[in-house]
Structures are given as C-alpha cells and as structure tokens.
Amino acid sequence: QVQLVESGGGLVQAGGSLRLSCAASPGTFSTYYMRWFRQAPGKERELVATITWSGGSTTYADSVKDRFTIARDKAKNMVYLQMNSLNPEDTGVYYCNADRGSLGSDWGQGTQVTVSS
After folding, report:
1. Quick one: 42 exposed, middle or buried, by C-beta within 10 A (0-12, 13-18, 19+)?
2. Which tens digits make up the pLDDT trace of 61-95?
C-alpha cells in the first residue's frame, strides 16, 4: 500500500495559480501511474491528469490541458500539479491517486482548492 498526503490547496482568485503536492510513502516502485482527480460539490470525481511513474509520460483532461502540468520527482517520491489560469470551475477537492495495477489503488485525503471570481 502507498500512503499519499496532499498539500498546497487554498483560496485563489480567478486567473491565479496554485501548486499542489502529493507526498508518497516509500514503495512507489510498484506504482504504474500517479493521477490527480478532483471533485466539485454535487459532482462526480473526475480525472484531471495522469503521469506514468517510470517514464513520466503525461495525459490531461481537455478542461485543464495547457493550463495544468503534472510532474513527479522519483527521488523524493513526490507528485506535483501546477495549476495556472485558474477559474471558478476548477474549484473542488483535489485527490492524489496511486494506481498499482493488480495490487490496488491508493488515495490521499484530498486538498481543497477554491477559485473566486
């Protein structure tokens, strides 16, 4: 099991930026993908960005493409989500996820992001 702790959320004005961090416990060698999800009030959790732990390939939801950047630091067991040009529709709880394939999937506790107009 991989333990994940998110940080970096907060309140920001529209057009601003935030950088989320996800600290993963040692053992991420078994992880295939690291992902960021978000959940807005009254809505389902949605996938925002994915990065392969080994090679660093990335994919993004259309709604955040060209604004958000996911990155990982294997030496520090960290995953980041740089969010630029934020708008109120980006408001929600952001969750870090470790996909270990057949070994399971792990979630952090989430960090709140609020974008004011």
Report:
1. exposed
2. 999 999 999 999 988 999 999 999 999 999 999 99
